[in-house]
Structures are given as structure tokens and as C-alpha cells.
Specification:
This protein has 702 residues and is mostly helical. It has 26 helices and eight strands.
């Protein structure tokens, strides 16, 4: 909500009463350094550097940390946080706390880690498979960027490299591994999957709007700053002059988008990026083959036309070539010559037809394609547009970055866009924002709230860090230890802070810190749309964990001409349904038409950079789970997997699989009564499993 409010403020005209900017330096632009370990009174409690910082702050406020959560709660918390899935029953029954570290390592190495944490990044990358706005065209190649993100998190790509790949992967030295080379190209899909006004007639305005989306995504995702607020005037709150905005715009306007999307008025994005080391050569071979084929077809058509003309002349003269065997013994010399020529032409046409068929069969295989970018042929410096009006260009500004960030941008050559230099500038170890921002994002997903509670805004309108020394200590060590996301997560989940109970029984702590800003307990977290759906399929035993190649959007687009791939046009993409058992990260994402379950359970708005989803509990959610055919089908499948010699044993099995613990005596009695009422049969157990799937405990991570 803060990011939306900030964006709204930035759209306001400059107020008649001047806004006086703060003279205090912005905390997030100050250099960070490793912090000394704070002293604590209860020295037995901390198990990591993180714990020292948390406990020190609690002791300053005369508060104590909660007791540790029980083993079952921790196991379920860890599985959902790292993979987005519940633990399997056999692991629930065999787990004890001595295995906690081993389970952490196993989950970090699981391919499901990439699906879970890749989805977090796709929220930030405003990933979608259509362009949005009035001409909502399909991005048929966007899914390749999605799969790249999953692979990047699974291989633990260093985050600085992850940044460089997404902003300038096409400009990096090609990786030795062909697959990694393709990933460098696919990574720049980050710049290309945003909202585009493909119905725009003014190409200068179109270019500026695309650049604005890329500036917004880049600065929010990596720097947590709203630079696009400076499009029309100097930023009202943060040290971002409009000249800086247009310096960035020059970089992105000097970049050609290869999205594979074409409309009548916007043809510049029709190209896509050929993949593979020999992608360009293969594409050239395909084009040469098409050219040769076209020439052969033209030659064939001319030859056939000449043959047909001569045939018609003979027929008009009374000599039908089809009845040549019945022709008179004596014919005029001219007719004999024409008949002879026609025979030769027939033979030539037949031979050329065979050659044409062979040429068509010998077509070289085309390369695969992806959404990407490349430097434009003629880089430009963008003029400052007076109050953002395209018709009022002022003097151009040299391509560059944000001047308030204390990192020097490398010189940009006259034939370069500047993306490579921008990527290095963002990924610099000296950049005070980048490491802080990503560390905060990781903390948020593990603890339910960021150390900075506005993960997309580290400016003056955002929140200040609750534990600034801890944030800086984590950030500097994150950089020094190789920008490893998995190593950071491992440190955090092995901390005592992560293992705390979420109980709110402490009246003193509840009174002094009701919002848990100081982290005296674990935060309870509602399952987001994707892990909730995945968990339902998991319990039903039907979840397909294989990575999905392609997308329903791409599949349906194959039957439609490129110009017809507009959402709603002749019902294109209007019939998309959740009819797959793959993980939810592979569901189609259509701007303006999200699937019901995703929309109902607060999936990220793909038109915005979303670092922290809103959480809600509404009657509509209960109604959806209650009436969904898919959920009811999975409840029936779940019931078939429940085993036990008695009703009570089957109830315990059901509750363990769904909630990772045995039911209390009261819960057991209630569920036993439910089975007595509905019947100890397949339908009765399906109803019980359906009810458990709708329970608050199943939908919450404690």
C-alpha cells in the first residue's frame, strides 16, 4: 500500500505551497559496515550473530524472547518458507530437532526451493504473460524468463550476478555452458515483461512509457527507490532530480526490446532474441532458406504460367494437348513446335515442383527464441521533457544513474546504451542500497515482516529500519561472503530468532510491543495463493513437481496470428482455467484477468513491483474453498490417502498430514463427532478432509 500511495503522490501536480525537503541525510544512502556484536545479559540464548542483535534490542526494552516453537511447528514453518509445500507424513513422524540443520540443507538443495523463492522474485519483477492496458497482447515467450528465475534461485546465482544478468545479460561475456549463455539472454526479460501501451500512436510517448516502466522496475526492485516520481519534476521527498530520471531514460531508450509482440502501430518489438551460441547463424540460415524458397516458388509460378498460357493457345487453335494421341497425323509446323515446347515445359514444371518439395523438406531447424533486449543501433541522450510533456523537450541529459547514490558510474561509450555500466553500478559492493534491499526482502519472507517495513521504499516516505545495526551487519556480510541467497537464508533459519514460538501469551510483551516490531515472538503468516493451492494439491497426492516448459498462453497463441493475440479478441485467452496440477508458479498470468483463486487470495498485482503482498481474511475466500470443484476433488483424493485401523487413527493421520501435528483431545472429539454425523464412508471422509482444508490452521504458518 505504501508503494501505491507513493506512486499516487508522485502523480500530483507540483503544489502551490513548496514542499521543503528534509535536510537530514537519507539513512539508506549512508555507507554500511560490519557492526560490533552487541552485549546481552542472557548469553545462553543467542545461537548466531542475528540473535545477539535481536536480544540486545529486546533487553533494552525490558522484554524477553518467546520460548522455542515445538518440533512439528518448526518443521512445517521451514518447509513452507523454503519450498512452499507442507512436509510429507513420513518426515513429520520421524523428525526431531537434532535433524533441523540437515533438513535445512536438504530443502535448500531441493528443486522446489527455486519454485518458492522464484515466485517471490516474480512479484518484484511484475511478471505477467500479457502487456496489459487497452491492447492486452500476449507475451508468448515470457515463460522462459519465469523458468530462468527458478533456475537462478536453484543454482544460487550470486545476487550481484543475478542483477547484471537481468539488466545487461546480453552484454556480458558469453558463458561457456550453452544453457548458461541462453540464461544470460533470457534474464533480460526482466526489462521486457512490464506493462506496455501497445495501442499508443505517438512513438515518442510509447518509448518514454516503456522506459518509465523499466526505470520503475529497476529502481524499486534493486534500490527500493521511486525514481519514476521524478519524471515530471524533481522528486518531492527523495534526492532524485528530474535530470537523473532522464539520464536513466536515455539508457533504456537506447535499448531495443525484443519481445516478439507486434501490433499495427508498434512494430519495433516484433523481433525476439534467438537463443543458443549459434542462434544468430541458425536464424540467418532460416532466413536464407526462406529467401531461396521464395525465389524458387516465384520461378516455378512463372514457369507454370508460361506453360498454362501455351496450353490455352493450343486449345484455342483446336489442338488439345490432353488429347495429343488423337491429334491428326499432319499438323502445321508452328503447332508441332508449340506442342514440343509444351512437352519440355511440362517436364520442367514437374521437375521444379519436385525440387520445391525437396527444398521445403530440407528447411533448417529454427532457433528457439526468448524475450530479451539489445543495444539500439544509435544510442541517444534523452532530453528532459518539461513537466513530462513529450511535446516540450528541453536540453538532453547524458546517460547516467542516480547522482545521490555515492557510487561512481563507469563512463558510457558513444555506441553503448549504458546498461552494462548501470548493472555494475547497482551491483557494486559500495552501493549502500542494493545489499540492504535484498537482505530485507529475504528477511521479510522468513519472518513475516521486513527489518524495513516498506521493502519497496527506502526513501523518506518509507519506514526506517527497526534494527538498523542488524540490517547493516547482514548486508555487509552478505556482500563479503559472495552475495549468496541460500547462505543468507541458511544463517537466518538456523538462528534462535527464527525458532521462536508465535504464541502471544506474554501479556507484558503484548502490551509493550503489540505489533511485534522488536521480534519477541515469531509472526504468524497466512499462506499466499500459490502455496495454499500447492498444499491442497499436495494433500490430494496429485501435485506435479516437474518444471513446466511453455505456458497455456503460449500454447493458445500458436493457433492465432501475431496480430490477433489480444486478450478478449475473438475470445482469445478468455477461457483460461486452472486445469493443471503443476505448481502454481507455472499458472498463466494474464493482466486484468487473473485466475479466481489467485485473485481471491491476494496474488501480486503484475502491474506493480510488489515486495510484500497484502494479506486478508474474507468471506469470499471461504466461499471459494467451500464451492471450488478443484478443491472438492482434491479433498476426495486426500481422503483416499488417509490410513488407519480406527476412526481416531484416521483422524490423527488427516490432521498430521494437513497441520503437521496430532489433534488435541478436544479437536479429536469434534472430528470424531463429525464423522459420526456424516458417516464413516468415502463421502464422509472427503467432507472431513474438505473441512480441514478450509481451517484457519491449515492456511496459516505458525
Amino acid at each position: 500500500m505504501i508503494s501505491r500511495f507513493t506512486a499516487w503522490l508522485c502523480l500530483l501536480p507540483v503544489l502551490a505551497v513548496a514542499v521543503v525537503p528534509s535536510t537530514k541525510p537519507l539513512w539508506s544512502l549512508q555507507p554500511f559496515a560490519r557492526q560490533p556484536l552487541p552485549l546481552v545479559k542472557h548469553r545462553q540464548w543467542p545461537q548466531s550473530r542475528v540473535d545477539h542483535f535481536i536480544l540486545s534490542r529486546l533487553e533494552q526494552e525490558q522484554l524477553a524472547p518467546n520460548e522455542d516453537a515445538d518440533a512439528a511447528t518448526l518443521l512445517r514453518r521451514l518447509h513452507f518458507d523454503l519450498t512452499g509445500l507442507p512436509p510429507p507424513l513420513e518426515e513429520i513422524e520421524s523428525f526431531d530437532l537434532s535433524k533441523f540443520s540437515a533438513v535445512v540443507d536438504k530443502l535448500l538443495a531441493s528443486p522446489e526451493f527455486g519454485a518458492r523463492w522464484g515466485r517471490h522474485w516474480l512479484d518484484v519483477a511484475r511478471y505477467a504473460e500479457t502487456s496489459g492496458n487497452t491492447r492486452n497482447m500476449a507475451y508468448v515467450l515470457a515463460w522462459r524468463y519465469r523458468n530462468y528465475v527458478v533456475r537462478a534461485f536453484n543454482r544460487d546465482t550470486p545476487f550481484d550476478e543475478f542483477i547484471r544478468e537481468q539488466i545487461a545479460g546480453d552484454l556480458l561475456a558469453p558463458a561457456r555452458d550453452p544453457a548458461r549463455h541462453d540464461d544470460q539472454l533470457l534474464a533480460t526479460g526482466f526489462l521486457n515483461v512490464g506493462v506496455k501501451s501497445l495501442g499508443e500512436q505517438d512513438m515518442t510517448l510509447y518509448d518514454m512509457n516503456v522506459a518509465d516502466d523499466q526505470i520503475d522496475a529497476t529502481c524499486h526492485a534493486f534500490l527500493a527507490l521511486s525514481a519514476n516520481c521524478a519524471r515530471c519534476h524533481d522528486h518531492k521527498f527523495d534526492p532524485i532530480p528530474t535530470a537523473d530520471y532522464h539520464a536513466l531514460a536515455g539508457i533504456f531508450r537506447s535499448t531495443q526490446n525484443l519481445s516478439g509482440v507486434e501490433t499495427n502501430n508498434v512494430k519495433k518489438e516484433a523481433e525476439a532474441m534467438p537463443l543458443g551460441r549459434d542462434g544468430m547463424q541458425r536464424l540467418a540460415s532460416v532466413k536464407q532458406h526462406e529467401k531461396d524458397l521464395a525465389e524458387m516458388q516465384k520461378d516455378y509460378q512463372e514457369m507454370a504460367k508460361k506453360r498454362n498460357t501455351m496450353r490455352e493457345e493450343l486449345i484455342k487453335a483446336g489442338f488439345d494437348p490432353a488429347k495429343a494421341s488423337k491429334a491428326p497425323d499432319v499438323m502445321p509446323k508452328e503447332m508441332v513446335e508449340k506442342m514440343s515446347t509444351l512437352t519440355v515445359l511440362d517436364k520442367n514444371v514437374s521437375e521444379r515442383q519436385k525440387q520445391l518439395a525437396e527444398k521445403q523438406k530440407s528447411a533448417p531447424p529454427p532457433p528457439l527464441f526468448g524475450m530479451s533486449v539489445r543495444d539500439g543501433e544509435t544510442p541517444i541522450d534523452c532530453p528532459v521533457y518539461d513537466k513530462g510533456e513529450i511535446k516540450k523537450p528541453l536540453a538532453p541529459v547524458k546517460r547516467g544513474a542516480l547522482s545521490a547514490v555515492p557510487v561512481k558510474l563507469a563512463p558510457i561509450g558513444p555506441k553503448e546504451s549504458g546498461r552494462r555500466q548501470l548493472a555494475d553500478w547497482i551491483a557494486s559492493p559500495q552501493n549502500p542500497l542494493t545489499a540492504r534491499v535484498i537482505v530485507n526482502r529475504v528477511w521479510l519472507h522468513l519472518f513475516g515482516r521486513g527489518l524495513v517495513d516498506s521493502p519497496d521504499d527506502f526513501g523518506r516516505l518509507g519506514m526506517k529500519p527497526s534494527h538498523p545495526e542488524l540490517l547493516d551487519d547482514l548486508a555487509v556480510r552478505f556482500v563479503q561472503e559472495g552475495w549468496s541467497i541460500k547462505a543468507l537464508i541458511r544463517e537466518l533459519v538456523l538462528s534462535r530468532t527464527y525458532r521462536m514460538s508465535s504464541s502471544t501469551r506474554s501479556e507484558v510483551a503484548q502490551a509493550r510491543d503489540p505489533s511485534n516490531l522488536l521480534l519477541w515472538r515469531a509472526n504468524r503468516k497466512r499462506l499466499e495463493a500459490e502455496p495454499l493451492r500447492d498444499a491442497i494439491l499436495f494433500l490430494g497426492g496429485t501435485l506435479d513437481l516437474t518444471p513446466r516448459e511453455g505456458s497455456p498462453v503460449a500454447d493458445k497463441a500458436q493457433a492465432v496470428t501475431p496480430q490477433g493475440r489480444e486478450v478478449g479478441r475473438k475470445h482469445f485467452l478468455s477461457d483460461l482455467q486452472d486445469d493443471t496440477t503443476h505448481r502454481s508458479i507455472y499458472l498463466p498470468i494474464v493482466r486484468g484477468a487473473q485466475l479466481p483463486m489467485m485473485q481471491c487470495f491476494n496474488a501480486a498485482d503484475p502491474g506493480l513491483v510488489i515486495g510484500n503482498r497484502s494479506a486478508s481474511v474474507t468471506p469470499v475466500q471461504s466461499l471459494l474453498l467451500m464451492n471450488s470443484d478443484q478443491v472438492m476433488e482434491q479433498a476426495q483424493n486426500f481422503a483416499k490417502r488417509v490410513t488407519g485401523p480406527t476412526v481416531d487413527a484416521k483422524i490423527v493421520c488427516t490432521w498430521k498430514m494437513a497441520c503437521c501435528r496430532e489433534p488435541t483431545a478436544q479437536e479429536l472429539q469434534t472430528l470424531r463427532g463429525f464423522i459420526t454425523t456424516v458417516g464413516d464412508n468415502a463421502e464422509g471422509w472427503a467432507q472431513l478432509c474438505h473441512a480441514v482444508m478450509q481451517s484457519g490452521e491449515f492456511q496459516t504458518v505458525y
